[in-house]
Each structure stands twice: as C-alpha cells, then as structure tokens.
Hints:
- The protein is an alpha+beta fold.
- Helix content is 56%, strand content 13%.
- It has one domain.
Amino acid sequence: xxxxxxxxxxxxxxxxxxxxxxxxxxxxxxxxxxxxxxxxxxxxxxxxxxxxxxxxxxxxxxxxxxxxxxxxxxxxxxxxxxxxxxxxx
Length: 89
C-alpha cells in the first residue's frame, strides 16, 4: 500500500533554495540533498510543485517538473494515479 511506503528523493541545493525563497515552500516539508519522505508528505509536495509550475518563470518550469516527477516516480505507478499527470504549461 502506498500509505505505508516511504521513499528517498534527492533535491539539489540550488533548487531547494529556489523552492524556499522564491516559490515559498515550507522548509520543514523538504530537505536539501537526500531526504526520506512519506506518502502524505509526497502528496503535499507534489500538489505544491504543481501549483508552482503554473506561476513560476519558464526557466524554472523544467527543474520543478523534473523534481515533481522524481517524487512521483519514487513511489511508482500508484502515486502517478493518485497525483495525476503533470500540469501543462
């Protein structure tokens, strides 16, 4: 079951700083480098990244989309069904 899973996902230091300072993501939700995330945390993060994709600059969209997909793929195809496809931009 997805609810019982955790996954380790990597976030680059530069992208972490952008997500915290420019996008306004909560620093207690994500970690620099490798971090262990629960199913519930990942749902929150993916929803936040989806929202950021709609409002961020074109130059950041690819990095944020790649980070979003790394969270989704870390949990497998079941998480993709829960989160849905990446938003179009």
